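Problem statement: downstream parser choked on a complex file, so we are re-checking the raw output for the adenosine-5'-diphosphate run. The parser issue turned out to be on our end (a line-ending mismatch), but while we're here, posting the original submission so the record is complete.
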Amino acid sequence: MDAIAVRGVRKVFGGTVALNDLDLTVTQGEVHGFLGPNGAGKSTTIRALLGQLRVDAGRAMIFGLDCWTRSVAAHRRLAYVPGDVALWPGLTGGASIDVLGRLHGGADPRRRQQLIDRFELDPTKRTRTYSKGNRQKVALVAALATNADLFLFDEPTSGLDPLMEEVFQQCVRELKNEGRTVLLSSHILSEVEVLCDRVSIIRRGTVIRSGTLTDLRSHTLTRVAAVTRHPVSGLDQLDGLVDLVVSTRPDGVHVGFRAAPGALGAAVGCVAAAEPASLTVQPPSLDELFLSNYRDEVPTALAEGAVR
Ligand code: ADP
């Protein structure tokens, strides 16, 4: 049974379609990145999983439990950290951790203390004095100290400094080693890259890609640049090449293009036949990968058969 199964979910706010036939699958024990530009529908999806909003069509399930009709049972299995934590200004950080922890069936005291130490939180201060980062730490400690099977993190490290970001990453690795499941919505691509087994990319309320980073990369274009001794022939006959630029200069023929995975071998072959003096082949960076998905830059034909 999947930890998260969202099937065909639609949610409309007034005239705004926030979720449009959204599918999302997170298998048990995986750390799953949830990526998309602002307004794409990440928080709405997470709120549907939390049973905080009723979807107009489709179903959202956690461990086979319907998130709307079985939300109490579903909440026993999950812990949640939002990106902007609101606390009780008059309570101390420690008391806030306990209140939040109780929502999840109570925190393990030893684990709670270890996490307070690791996140370098002073739990004796009232939360009204806390910075945004400290409020995030309270929610993280409260969630991580529970025995939840599924952790829903919605931009959990916003406001944390890089050292604390590192602590968070270590905690997620430990959750994974314990066999727990994590859905991580994040703008920090490096965080997603190091932590996530699989990634889903959401745009305008629909998951448009889902797979491992290697899978996602295999549907994007590789940049090739070379300087050759002879003119390169055959490139313009290849399907799957874009941005082909050729210029003849004193030091040789400068050729550059971006190639779809299926065209890369043949294209590099054409370049090799023209005796390259230099050749660089550059896979897409994570930034390019996500930008291309957001901007529809990759032609639909190349994206066909995208891993689901
Ligand atoms: P993300 O978390 O990816 O930034 P959201 O899920 O917050 O995106 O928002 C998805 C879309 O739904 C946006 O267009 C947003 O303006 C809209 N939306 C979200 N919540 C509400 C709401 N309560 N009322 C009206 N529109 C909403």
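For whoever reads this later: The mean pLDDT is 90.
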